[in-house]
Amino acid sequence: MEQLYRLYFQDVYLYLRSLCGSEQLAEELTAETFSQALAGLHRFRGDCDVRVWLCQIAKYQYYTHCRKQKRQPQPLPEHLPDSRCSLEQALEDKDAAARIHQYLHQMRQPYQEVFMLRVFCELPFAQIAALFGKTESWARVTYYRAKREIQQWMEGMEG
User: Fold this and answer.
1) Choosing a second label site near 122 at 20 to 30 A (CA), which of 12, 63, 100, 116?
2) Crossing angle for the helix pair 125-132 and 50-68, nearest 10 degrees?
3) Which residues have CB under 8 Å from 90's CB, separation 6+?
4) Within 10 A of 107 (CB to CB), how many other CB atoms are there?
């Protein structure tokens, strides 16, 4: 389990931070995720990548936390990114990436989650598809629709 923690801590942490928008909460939930993974390691069937399995546990931990706090995940305030650059360039710029990240919290599911899994966790489409129980084509189409939505939002900010 220690090896899993070293290998996947950053991926799980970034995924949770993208969901909750809080570094401290993401750290706490990441620790809970690995604790739950350790307790349920015997249930891991190996039919998906370990990272996908851990992200599923992480998402469950996040939603459980929200239910316990009796709140829905709150979208962060929207800021204006520099839409003159491409989405990829904006994600490399830390300030623009933060604004895009904030916009992500306003996107509907599954677009939000598929985009975050692809960009922040760098999961291949096959693993994203496995996470949702869908086809790889579905994961690709969903990602590109989410990407297009973000690009259109950025273009709208320019005008």
Assistant:
1) 63
2) 50
3) 81, 82, 83, 96, 97, 100, 154
4) 18
Q: Would you give the DSSP letter of residue 47?
A: S
State the pLDDT at residue 7.
83
Which tokens sit at 155?
Answer: 């273009």
Secondary-structure breakdown of the chain: helix, strand, coil percentages, each rounded to the nearest 5? 70, 0, 30
- Cβ of 94: how many Cβ atoms within 10 Å? 8
Which regions in the chain score pLDDT beneath 50?
74-85
pLDDT at site 91: 53
Measured in residues, the chain has a length of 159
Give the integer Cα–Cα distance in Å for 38 and 32. 10
CA atoms within 13 A on the CB side of 113: 16
| The residue to which tokens 């801590």 are assigned | 9
What pLDDT shows up at residue 138?
A: 92
Q: Are 85 and 41 in contact (CB under 8 A)?
A: no
Name the packing angle between helices 94-104 and 111-119 (round to 10°).
150
